[in-house]
Write a structure and sequence with these properties.
By secondary structure, this protein is α+β, with helices and mostly antiparallel strands. It is built from 14 helices and 31 strands. A hairpin with a 4-residue loop joins β17 and β18.
Length: 549
């Protein structure tokens, strides 16, 4: 009897596990229904029993992914949640990101851990500001983008107009996989273009059902069953005929002028499959999820020192894309989110820390479901692993690996636009203030700059949005018991500056800017207006003024 080759068995297991992983983030403008869609995806995955709409009311059920107390109070997502569930033999890693523009930095960081993105668009509003910003981040990374046009059961814009705006504003071609039959009160369902089926719209008490949508197989738009469905109980013949004509015209235009589905173009981020539905009423979500797991890529290769690291490489590697303090208020601990990139992760394994050049033992890894945890023994590429960081030595962008000389491209820090001094109101709580400042800085709630002459005594907070200051203040109070005052500063631009030391000193001598240092001691200059920034960029040619670091 021949014994199986252990190494071959391990390789086969690794390949199988990689192939069934799907890791993605949902991006959208605020109020497009992102967290509601997240809840419904969890519902189909059996991870929760009932989905709760996101409402800023005390009597509403809070969503699973919004776990912070302030998120429950505001009814908004302000921090990325990692959610994992099984669906039809696939392991889904869903990264629910903040939609509010003031927390876009957290979303930017999270997208580095995703292999695909779902772009959610409000069908009544179309492509909005925050959607454009986040889309550009996806484009920079070249990841596939799947589009879900939401809220079709409410008054919506013409679907052809939405598709045209998607292509003109974002510059990406699209291929509708389904097409709506009416909108608002006249919304009857969607037509599956590939399978030639009508997915019949059901609302109201069906919003939390997990059973499959009723699908009506038809031969085409002129099938009597199709026409009977559109008619329903409506006796207004003119309205019915107009709806049929609009549907027929739309489908014909897509056939002759639209892009054909091309999976390779989808994977290259050049073509976005488009789906229509209503997350609130649980319509079209299952259809989307079934298509997504077939079309979205499994874990993709990552780059280390210009070398491509494959997910099925035998050695373990991964990188930290998020740090979260006080996820468990009872323990006041600090958790680092690790994206597994290659090989197999096992509990208790020893790894090398690329930045600190030292070894770590990973004894307490766990899977995350919002703030809930489950100790795990193993994980594979695409999975998100939580690591309790008691020493504070894990930073966003750090690489951990069982192999030396592996260091993934860092997670970028973006230049902030708002600045403030943070003042501790109780001198006796200076120690707690400093601890909270350090932890929330590492978490990325705000960026913290130091004034060279004052060190940690007079920190300058920097943020992409002003709401970050409020969150910082709230969390210092609720999690560290420290009251603070936030004094806004008049600067509007920040740039990291690199170049000859003598030129940096000359720049520092000017009165129309302010020199600070980041956590690594790198010089950062603040400017009060566009003119001042443009003048120094034109004058100090030997210096580089960087927007990202």
């Amino acid at each position: 009897m021949t014994m199986p080759d252990i190494e071959s068995t391990d390789e086969a297991t690794l390949s199988k596990e990689v192939a069934r992983r799907r890791t993605f983030a949902i991006i959208s403008h605020p109020d497009a229904g992102k967290t509601t869609l997240t809840e419904k995806l969890l519902l189909y995955g059996g991870a929760i029993r009932q989905a709760g709409a996101v409402k800023a009311k005390t009597n509403q059920k809070h969503t699973t992914s919004d776990w912070m107390e302030i998120e429950k109070q505001r009814g908004i997502s302000i921090s990325t949640s990692a959610l994992q569930f099984e669906y039809q033999g696939h392991r889904i890693n869903l990264l629910d990101t903040p939609g509010h523009k003031d927390f876009s930095e957290d979303t930017y960081r999270t997208l580095t851990a995703a292999d695909a993105a779902v772009m959610l668009i409000d069908a009544a509003k179309g492509v909005e500001t925050q959607t454009r910003k986040l889309f550009e981040v996806c484009r920079m990374r070249g990841i596939p983008i799947f589009t879900f046009m939401n809220k079709l059961d409410r008054p919506s814009r013409d679907p052809l107009e939405l598709i045209e705006e998607l292509e003109k504003v974002l510059g990406i071609r699209s291929c509708p996989m389904s097409w709506p039959i009416g909108t608002g009160q006249e919304f009857r369902g969607v037509y599956d273009r590939q399978r030639k089926q009508i997915l019949v719209f059901q609302g109201g008490d069906q919003a939390n059902a997990t059973k499959a949508l009723k699908a009506l197989a038809v031969t085409g738009v002129d099938d009597p069953k199709f026409l009977e469905h559109i008619k329903g109980s409506n006796t207004d013949t003119d309205k019915i005929e107009k709806q049929i004509d609009e549907l027929r015209d739309g489908l014909e235009l897509l056939e002759y002028a639209g892009d054909e589905f091309d999976h390779d173009r989808v994977l290259r981020g050049e073509l976005s499959p488009v789906f229509f539905g209503s997350a609130m009423n649980n319509f079209g979500v299952e259809h989307f999820l079934n298509q997504f797991i077939q079309l979205a890529p499994p874990p993709t290769p990552r780059t280390s020192h210009e070398q491509s690291i494959q997910p099925h490489d035998s050695f373990f590697s991964g990188f930290i894309f998020k740090v979260q303090a006080n996820m468990n208020p009872a323990h006041r601990d600090r958790v680092a989110f690790l994206r597994v990139c290659s090989g197999k992760f096992t509990r208790g394994m020893g790894v090398k820390h690329s930045r600190l050049k030292k070894e770590f033992k990973l004894n307490k890894p766990f899977h995350l479901f919002a703030q809930e945890r489950e100790i795990i023994e193993e994980a594979y590429p695409g999975d998100i692993v939580g690591l309790v960081d008691t020493t504070g030595e894990l930073r966003i962008g750090d690489t951990l690996s069982t192999k030396t000389n592996i260091e993934y491209q860092g997670v970028p820090r973006f230049t902030p636009e708002f600045f403030a001094n943070a003042v501790c109101l109780d001198p006796l709580k200076r120690k707690q203030f400093q601890k909270g400042l350090d932890q929330l800085r590492e978490e990325g709630v705000v960026q913290v700059f130091r004034q060279p002459l004052f060190g940690d005594q007079a920190p300058v907070l920097a943020a992409v949005g002003v709401l970050q200051f409020e969150i910082f203040q709230h969390r210092l109070k609720s999690e560290y018991g420290v009251d603070t005052r936030i004094d806004r500063l008049s600067y509007i631009h920040a740039r990291w500056v690199e170049g000859p030391a003598k030129d940096i000193e000359q720049l520092d001598a000017r009165n129309d800017n302010r020199r600070l240092e980041d956590r690594d001691g790198s010089p950062v200059f603040l400017f009060e207006n566009d003119w001042s920034l443009n003048w120094v960029q034109d004058t100090f040619k030997a210096l580089k003024f960087l927007k990202t670091k």
